[in-house]
Amino acid sequence: MNETNPSNNQAVPTYPSWVPAAVKWQAEQLYAELATHPEPAKYKEILDRLASDPLMENVWREFFRKHRQSQEFFNPAMTADRLAAKKRLLATELRRKAGPTCERDANLLEAEAVLLEEEGDGPLASVDWSAQQRAAQLFLRQAFLVAVENKPVYLRDLQAEVATLNDIAQRSKKDADALELLGMTRKARSLRKIAKSCEAKASTTLSNPRDPDVPWESQSIFEPRRDDPWVLARQSSNDELRAFLVDLAIPTIGLFGKPLVGTLANVAKVIFQRKDITREMAREMLRTFEVPQAE
What we know:
Number of strands: 4
Largest sheet: 2 strands, antiparallel
Number of helices: 11
Oligomer: single chain
Order of helices and strands: EEHHHHHHEHHEHHH
């Protein structure tokens, strides 16, 4: 049964009793934003499923599940203090490997830890909700956004984009040289800035893959690579599913410190309305999704 939201005349579901109050609040915010989306009816259907599909009960239960004795969460939200501690631990592990790249990455991780401690919990901070409740709210928002924006990224498309950027950069440099000969120094300088910007974009769009013959400690954990898991080398029937899982795994790690593969599989079942999606299938699709984490 649906009720009408008077703010936008959208029908919103009457939530099942197992939906936590914090999650209901976030769902209502998303319903209120539906009018701003280009296809509100389509997006409402996705949101309806995320808000009330029976499979989502397992998702919220997992986020709020506690150890019986300690009453601590099995999957606690990554507050600033917890995340900073993980980054420092990872920095220590990188330094044990030695090497200039590891040292540089360790310094970056420690700088991030200091920044986290200075800025506090950011999106997880709220006067109305606990950090765990905020993490669940943000997970719902991210699941919805990933579902409506889901689009596989193919290697061939990135290669074409890089080729175009490099071509523009080269032509801009030649045009800049010609303008300079004509005394148009200011316009030549502008073209060189465009060329530099295109080259920078090309280098971050598609870096070289990690070389298996080069020690890991000599390869930065911060650089994007063409063998990153969200870049698909070839087309298959499960590309949209894989893209969804990878794109949702990233914020899930940010919120809870780990991908929670079983939870992602349950959400994928809801979004794609497929009963055949299992934890094992999701794990295989995320197999190459390696995000260095301190355990």
